[in-house]
Amino acid sequence: MALQPSLRALIVAGNPNAPHTLDVFLDYVCPFSARMANGIQNILRPKFEDGGEYEGKAKVVFRLQVQPWHSASTLTHEAGLAVLRASPEHFWPFSLALFKHQDEYFDIPTANLTPLQIRAKLIDLAASVIPFGDVEKVKDLLALKGTPNGGTGVTDDLKYNIKFARQNSIHVSPTCLWDGLVAGEISSGWGEEEWTRFLKTRVHF
Question: Where is the Thioredoxin-like fold domain (predicted)?
Fold first, then answer.
């Protein structure tokens, strides 16, 4: 599937030029998305990268799926995009850290926090993952612009991801596309056996 060049770091597993693409729509505050992210890290990355049996054959693209019924979802996705812009090589490690701490951004824990306080928490989390010199870049990207409704430095990137999901009629997270078509059989609960069976029938050498 197409990907805006500036967001190339959304390719979180495999060679960017690999012929097969697994698009995975994930929400940072969705528990099932966290399970899927762990599957990408522990099962798919070893298969798609150096020495893996599908090295150069398939890649995984993390598609940010904002679910606005969770009030902090937009803010967490903005933070992910800010890290992507400031320190692209740390986007996936930050994403894994955010999934690990996602319960801190659920509805009840954030109910009495302002958006600025939530952003501050997210910046602190980013600071635990990215180089010190990039933390200020993240802060700048998450700062509100001068106009009353101007958004942040990553608003356009957020719009891109939301529009991409909408035009593909993505409703829930996680949702997976294989080479552009919804693969409804994929589950966040899949382990090594299920992924092995799926890839054996879908990857053509």
Answer: 11-105
Q: What is the pLDDT along the chain (205 residues), one digit of tens a residue?
A: 689 999 999 999 999 999 999 999 999 999 999 999 999 999 999 999 999 999 999 999 999 999 999 999 999 999 999 999 999 999 999 999 999 999 999 999 999 999 999 999 999 999 999 999 999 999 999 999 989 999 999 999 999 999 999 999 999 999 999 999 999 999 999 999 999 999 999 998 7
> CATH code at 39?
3.40.30.10
Q: pTM (2 decimals)?
A: 0.95
Answer whether 126's CB lies under 8 Å from 181's CB: no
Q: What residue numbers bound the domain in which 94 lies?
A: 30-50+60-190
Contact between residue 59 and residue 9 where contact means Cβ atoms under 8 Å apart: no
Number of domains in the chain: 1
What distances in angstroms separate CA 38 from CA 16, 65, 94, 124, 144, one per listed residue?
A: 20, 17, 13, 22, 32
89 found inside a domain: yes
